[in-house]
């Protein structure tokens, strides 16, 4: 059985994808089990002593000064979950929900949360047996953690809420029964340990970063095809140019272009047809490279957050201390995901400008809108409209969420991150960018079909063939959205990148 073992410290982006999308089995390490149990013993000690500790023997937020007796511990934790499950909007996708559950279990495995080991195993059993809570996408401020959406996850653990089990939506209680998982009763600290954290924003962001890393390869492929369709000048990608401005992303993108275009007879040298190309062709390494470096930064932040203890209070067993802090605050993620959204939006922006160069006869030297019978046929005219609409929407979505804050809990929580909004926006920008790049690939392939007697590059020829396996050359007008959808599927399935990488290893 293929599995991922969690210990709170070593979870990778690839591990998250394996569990979220590949349905790998999840186990917890022996060392992590010992830490969880030791942390719980300290919580039980404080409860027995009726020591005043936030979230264990007190209320929450503004109610932190209200003492809670030992007899009320279970009721307090249940009330926390049912009152905080205030999410609205469409349910998050299955892979995101699985990512959330995995990240929450991994945070608990660090042993700073004071939760019972049996409660952690319930969450892991849900993952392994395919019980996926219905978690509405909206309702988190991203500062006391993702309280509302995580509460919807926990509802199912206590036999409430709704879940998807084997493709069917049903009550949480029914899903747990069908999967053979016992419903639990939360006790002191457990409700807070399960919902006080940044796992929703981080799961959405982690899966997005993984997909964006694949998209970085695809945008270089799309750019290279457009270079060929425009008989672009290869000198601008010379390694000497990029070594004197050694940003890693820029150098990687330039090298990708050189490898993809190796052997191409479409490419030209400076002065052969023209002295220099427009920026959207000549500056592909610089533009794509900037987004590469931004996404690499975000990946570093996500990797830290995936293995962080983000709830409150934290239990330090060695010192026998319980400290109320602010690790639930999503600001590090909020800024990173705003940056991610901007980086992806720029990839779509430059792609749309390359599309314009392909369809505009004054810029391309090709038939207007890439159709041989213009007038009777509109060709790619409205394809560019659609791309322009998507990049314009992305500009709105790229406005940072992290610069906003609305005080909550009677001003006890007087600065919030809006990090979950930032992560959701970045995902929507990614979805739009995929469709823009699909249009560029189609336009570039169509433009190439107007040439005769030329050979594509080592890598671009593979990409072109993959496109043409699914989408025929446009000879007469036809329904175009199906072409866009088919090409988008080639992108999101990573089919084009996988095939190209059989002959060219891309950065």
UniProtKB/TrEMBL annotation:
EC identifiers of the protein: 4.3.1.3
Cross-link (5-imidazolinone (Ala-Gly)): 143-145
Enzyme class, spelled out: lyase
Gene behind this protein: hutH
Family note: Belongs to the PAL/histidase family.
GO cellular component terms, semicolon-separated: cytoplasm
Record keyword Kinase present: no
Catalysed reactions listed for this entry: L-histidine = trans-urocanate + NH4(+)
Localization in the cell: Cytoplasm
Pathway(s) where this gene product acts: Amino-acid degradation; L-histidine degradation into L-glutamate; N-formimidoyl-L-glutamate from L-histidine: step 1/3
Protein name: Histidine ammonia-lyase
Alphabetized SUPFAM superfamilies for the sequence: L-aspartase-like
Post-translational modification as stated in the protein's UniProt record: Contains an active site 4-methylidene-imidazol-5-one (MIO), which is formed autocatalytically by cyclization and dehydration of residues Ala-Ser-Gly.
Gene Ontology BP annotations: L-histidine catabolic process to glutamate and formamide; L-histidine catabolic process to glutamate and formate
Alphabetical list of Pfam families matching this protein: Lyase_aromatic
Any one GO MF annotation of this record: histidine ammonia-lyase activity
Keywords: Cytoplasm, Histidine metabolism, Lyase
Positions carrying 2,3-didehydroalanine (Ser): 144
